[in-house]
Structure formats: structure tokens, C-alpha cells
Design goal:
about 260 residues; Conserved hypothetical protein from pyrococcus furiosus pfu- 392566-001, ParB domain; 3 domains; elongated
Amino acid sequence: HPRRYFSSKAMESLITSVRQHGILQPMLVRPMASDTYELVAGERRYRAAQAVGLTEVPVVIRDLTSQEVIQVALLENLQREDLNPVEETEAILQLLCINLKCSCEEVISLLNQVAHIKKQGGELTNNVIREQWEIVERLFNVVGRLTPDSFRSNRLPLLNLPDNILESLRQGKVEYTKARAIAQLKDENERHKLLEKVVEEELSVREIRDYINTNKPSQHQDELLNRVNLAYKKMKQVKVWEDSQKRKLLEKLVLQLEKLIE
């Protein structure tokens, strides 16, 4: 499960270190068919070794199952200083799925269910839920960051962000607090413009909110115009004036509209 993005600054720093000192920490591999090995942990070190032209690197060889490979790779990724919130969220969610042997939807449902029980001041009386929750708590202790509740309320919503914002966040172009602020804009074009502006001008969260508030009236105006146009088209299609009662009501509405725009 290779990572999609690496911080270029951190990568350059590692390449410099490898050029001077070589690979200090062995990579983890597992044996495959025909005397080949699969890299399990140490992708950044491997890339750095390639960049400086090393032909040999230190490795630790372990027989691991496919599930163990995924777990080790995910846990190693979670130790990275430059790991962004989206990768962190996806990695933790995957680890929860593997350890609980269930789907992402079921994991999220469990987190919500337990949060609701605790909010009501209740106890986890259901044996299955209690056992599952012990696994969840153990995993968060191993990961060593976030709590199940902060993960549920602050991190999981990131995965529902619009695709272009999620991608910018994944690439490290925007911070997650800014990403959530940008996502408040419902108009897709406006949102795309704001995202570009935030990346180019490095706007703060406060500046993003100010921009959204300033641009709300024009957005609302466009919505109203669209509704008026849509109502006019529908009116022509259903031929409202053929019904006498509806025609009288329409005349009143048109009069009101005319007075409004005088």
C-alpha cells in the first residue's frame, strides 16, 4: 500500500541524509516467489536509496500474511511526521476495519453508536459492542494519537469533503481546518475559485470565512434568479392560465412582482 504523496521538503532532507550516511534503519520485506521480496515498510528510505544510486540496502526479512503486511505498512505510515490528516484518517479507518473484521460503514456505525450511548450516560451492556470497543480503544492506544471520539467527530467528516478539496488536502496544499471552511460553500464553481485563491494566497481560516460571508449575497441572488426562471418555464409547461382560480392567483402575484421591480 504505497503512499500517494510525500512532502518534497522532507524527501529532499532524507535523500541528503542517505547520501551522507547511507540507510541507517533497515527496511522490512517479506519473501515472495522466485527469490524476490516485497517491500512492507520503508518506502521513503527505498526511494531515497534509488535517488542516490545505492545498489544494496539493509533489510529485515519476515514471513508475513497479506493482512499483516497491510497492518505493518499502515502503522509505519502513521509514524510519519509529514503524514497529512486525510492519509492518517484513511489509515486508522483501514486498521479499524482489519482488526474488527468489518466494513468501513460498520466501523463508523459502531463509533456513532458508542458515542450516542456515552452521551446518554449509558453503559456498554451489549457483549459484542463491548468487545468491539475494547479492540477500538487498544488500537488507538497503539496508534498513540487521537481518541475514538475526536477521530469520529473531527477526522471522519474529512472523507465527506468534495473531491477536489480532499485531493488538495491529501497533497498538503491546504490544512484540514481550511479545507472544512472552504467546503461550507455549496456552489461548486465558487468553491473551486475559493480553493485556488486559498492555495495561491495562503488565506487564513478567518479570511476564508470572511470571503464566504462577503460572497453570500451574490450567491443567494443567483439562486433566486434560477428559481424565478425555473418557475416561469414550469408555468409555461403546465399552462396555469387554463385554470380560472390559478389564473386569478397568478394575476395577483404578477401585480406584486411588478410593484416590487418598479
